[in-house]
Every structure is written in C-alpha cells, then in structure tokens.
Amino acid sequence: MLRLIATSLCLRCQRVTALPLNVRPCATLSSAENQKTVKALYDLSVDVQKVRKLKGWVLHQSPAYTEEVADLLMDMGASGVIISRILAVHPEAVLCHPEQMKAQRDLWMTVCPNLKDLVGIIEKFPASFFTSSCHHDNQQNNIAYFQSLNLNKRIITKLMASAPQSFSRPVEQNEVMVRTLQQAYQELGGEEANMKIWLQKLLSQNPYVLLKPPEVLRQNLLFLRDKGFSTAELLRLLSKLRGFVTELNPDSMRRTLVYSQDTMGCSEADLRDIILNCPALLYYPEAILAERFEGLLSAGISMSQIMETPTVLELTSQIVNYRIQRLRGHGYDVRTGSLEVLNGTKKEFEMSYGKLQLRRERPLFNPVAPLKVDD
After folding, report:
1. Where is the signal peptide (predicted)?
2. Cβ distance 160 to 167 under 8 Å?
3. If residue 325 lies in a helix (H) or strand (E), which one and from where to where?
C-alpha cells in the first residue's frame, strides 16, 4: 500500500497554459515554430507530433540548443534511443544553455557514482536534471548539507531525482525539517547510534517528507499519543509509516479509527494493536474501508480473521477475490486457514502460492510411519 502512496505522490499536477518557471528570461516566444529546433528533433528521431501536442510552446522558443543537448548526453554515454526518449518527454531540455547543462552534470557527479547511472537518472527524471540555473546555488548548498549528515550518496542522488523541489529551495528549510525528524526520533527513545540509518531509510522511502511543514509531524504524533500509544509504540509507528506520517492529519485519522473500531467491535487497546500490525490502516477513508470489509466478509472470511491479519485490508477487493480463487483451485480454503497467504505484493503472493502448491504435490514423508507392503 505504501508503494501505491509513493507512486501517487509522484503524479504531476494538471497542465496549465502558463509557461514553466524554468524558461530562461532571455528566450523569446515567436508565433512561428523554430524550424531549426524542429529539424534537429526530427534528425534525432524525436516524436515531434507528441511534442507539439503536449508542449508545443517549446518549438516556438529561440534560441534553442537541441544539438548541444544531444551531444552532451551522447558524451555521457546515452544512446540515440535514450536521447530521443528524453527529448520527447521533456523537450524543455533544449532551452538549457550548454554551460548550464555542463554545470548540472558536474554537480550531479559529486553524488552520482558514474555517468552511466546519471544517464539512467536523466532518462527517468529529466526535469530534475534540466533545471533553471537560478537553483544551482541552492542545489550545491543542499548537497553539502546532506553530505554533512553523512548520508549515503545513493540516498542524496535519489532525493535530488525524485524530489528536486527540496534541492531548489534554501537549505535552511530542509535543515528545519531534518531537525524535527531527528528530535522526534530521539524524544521517542530512538538510539543515537541508529539515527543516521533510520533517517536514510525514511528519506529514501518518502523523499517528499522534506517538503511538508514540520508542524504536521508534531500534530500527528501528539494525536496518536493522545490515543494511547506509548512512546515505544510511537517510534514503531513512525518507523513503519516511514515519511508518510506527514501525509496524515488528525481529522482523517480520527474518522478512520472510529469507523474501524465500530466495524470490528474491538476495544481501544485491541485497535492500537491492529494499527501497530497494519499502520497503513490510518490512511484509508471510511468508504474504502467499508468496501474492503464488505468484500472480505462476503468471501466468507470472519471478522476475527481480519483482526488477526489486518494487513489484508491493504489489498483491494479485486485482488483479494482473485487470490482466493487461485488458492481455492489448489484446495486452500481461506475461511478456515490463515489469511497471511493472501498478503504481500504480486511477487510475494506467487511465492507463497508456489509453496502451497509444492506442499500439496509433495506430501511430507513420515520416517516413523510403518511402510505398507504387499503380502
């Protein structure tokens, strides 16, 4: 479920007609397309029709540096196919001045292990690399700050790629949020020796946590404390929820907890145990939970089974029904067995399913059982 949240956080805002902020002030917008740009894109096998449809304004800008961008990427080891793909999804790259691009390459190489990895990052996150030159100083300062925390270079690279906004803003804003996370970890009893690893894991799992107001984290932890979670349990929750604890708010959590307790008919203590086993439950609104409870119950699964394995609520009803049918085909009845076999990603489920199938095809041999022999 947290993977899905991580994916949803990466969705872009709807496009607007205004030009992006990173367009250079010196660029001019013409009513006619820049034919030099169009020809250069065609020569690079870029889907120009796609560019016209999605970001046609780029073709009207002058000057543009299409050939220079391609040469730089080629010098870094990018193939023609990769260059074409990058320029099709992020044609704004051709508006970056060659000196700016070289500065970006040198900056990224301070944290990226090699050019091959950097090309892979540019292919996946072109907008993170082709940024405005006005952000360069902030990027440098933020890299220096995260290096001062002794964070792994791989983590810093991931942060720059997936949450570039946190590097384009003043370093002081990131310092405040990191201090808030560190203080919360220490106040909840986290060990100083493990704090760097804990922080690295949290930032890598949700890079967007840096962009949230520090007050959100404090408010959510105070709400959960008021609900009876101990200091040690809050640390467990903070670690399990990773950085996504900042995506919550007290009002939504309150409604979710009230609905869950009423539906399961459990005590507050039991509900806390369920949340500790399945922290993702805090994210779901009542409508989604109602659908999932109904789907599980209609499949013959009891409420006590759900309470014993609450992580099954992370799965959609469609996934649950599909997996139940797969298991039923091999003689496994979830109504009488454990729901653990339903859990996990598609890959994890297939592994569990394979083990069940193997166990069914190869019954255990009992070495003390008498052998049956013909008279």
Report:
1. 1-18
2. yes
3. helix 317-328
Q: Which long-range contacts (CB under 8 A, 24 or more apart) does 93-96 make?
A: 93/69, 93/126, 93/130, 94/37, 94/40, 94/41, 94/58, 94/64, 94/65, 94/66, 94/69, 95/23, 95/24, 95/27, 95/58, 95/61, 95/64, 95/65, 96/65, 96/69, 96/130
pTM of the predicted structure, to 2 decimals: 0.77
CA distances from 76 to 45, 70, 102, 133, 163 (A): 19, 10, 11, 20, 23
Cβ neighbors of 184 (< 8 A, separation 6 or more) are 217, 218, 221, 238
Residues in a beta bridge with 29? 61
The per-residue DSSP string of 117-180 comes to: HHHHHHHH-HHHHS--GGGHHHHHHHHHHHHHTT--HHHHHHHHHH-THHHHS-HHHHHHHHHH
* pLDDT tens figures, 109-146: 999 989 999 999 999 999 999 988 889 999 999 999 99
Rounded to whole angstroms, how far apart are CA atoms 31 and 59?
10
Q: Mind listing the pLDDT tens digit for each residue in 270-290? A: 999 999 999 989 989 999 999
Assigned token pair, 358? 């193997």
Strand residue runs (E) in the chain: 28-29, 61-62
